[in-house]
Amino acid sequence: MTTRLALGLLGLALLASGAAADEPAYVPTWEALLAEHTRSVPTTVGTTVDYAALKGASRDRWRQLLRQLDEAPAPESREETLALWINAYNILTIDKVLGRYPVDSIRDIGSFFSPVWDQDAGRVAGREVSLGEIEHGILRKLGEPRIHAAIVCASTSCPSLRRTPFTARDLDAQLDEAMRQWLASPSKGMRIDREDERLTVSRIFDWFEDDFDVLGGVRAALTRYAPEADRGWLASHAKDGHLDHFDYDWRLNDVRRAGSATNLPAP
């Protein structure tokens, strides 16, 4: 091997190790668990989670992930903050389910007086938080409506869980992709009935309508991120009537409900 080639290979190795070092320690653990214990399925849920395996054979690795999330450094940039808390919400949501699994719905974990969203969920960067605090007290206050395509409440009608972690470096592209994939689902994201001129979208756009004002409103956001074939119709119906909303299916995104659905490649 020539000296020049050896130096080149060393440089590539250093660059690769440096890139890995830029991410908190929990990220590669989360990435591996997502790859191993989630499945992409051609049904409304989109992504299922193997809760039984995470509670059983992979229990120690899951506990390692929680320790690493607790030890994650405080984020410094807006992108780091968003990536950390989006990942944290998805991790701690799964953990809440694991604590009571098997359950039919995450809402079964709470009660009228103590909803699951208000319960202590775990520790992130040395801070005890609830799922509600992450969503409403941290993420929504950052003024980034695309989070609603990224945080997943372990339910069928939630946007499909991304099978790779969100990272500060790729965050903008990942959030755009999450919005596009969500709206491409005609059973829980967006559906257009051209014959009846009827537009049906996720109820999330009703619950958090004001969050999309920074994108020009819900209809502007739909037009921007909808499948290309639908954008013209949306633009020409930008001021037409009210939006219809899908019923929200709170059933758990459990792999055991998906039967023998195909395991597709991660995005």
Describe this entry's structure for a reader:
By secondary structure, this protein is mostly helical. The protein has one domain. It has 10 helices and 7 strands. It has helices at about 5-20, 25-35, 50-55, 60-70, 80-100, 130-140, 170-185, 205, 220-225, 230-235, and strands spanning about 40, 45-50, 120-125, 125-130, 190-195, 200, 245. A 3-stranded mixed beta sheet has the order 5-6-7. A two-stranded antiparallel sheet has the order 1-2. The protein has a two-stranded antiparallel sheet with strand order 3-4. Strand 3 and strand 4 (about 125-130) form a beta hairpin. About 35% of the residues are buried.
Keywords:
mainly alpha; two-stranded antiparallel ribbon; 7 strands; 43% helix; globular; disordered C terminus
Major β-sheet profile: 3 strands, mixed
The radius of gyration over CA amounts to 20 Å
Strand order of the largest sheet: 5-6-7
Strand content: 5-15%
Helix content: 40-55%
Distance between the termini: 37 Å
Count the beta strands.
Answer: 7
What string gives the helices and strands in order?
HHEEHHHEEHHEEHHHE
**Helical run tally:** 10
Summarize it:
The chain has 267 residues and is mostly helical.
How do the strands and helices of this protein lay out in sequence?
Layout (H helix, E strand, L loop, with lengths): L2 H19 L4 H12 E3 L6 E3 L1 H5 L3 H12 L7 H23 L19 E5 L2 E4 H9 L31 H13 L6 E4 L4 E4 L2 H4 L10 H8 L2 H9 L7 E2 L22
Parallel strand pairs: 6-7
Antiparallel strand pairs: 1-2, 3-4, 5-6
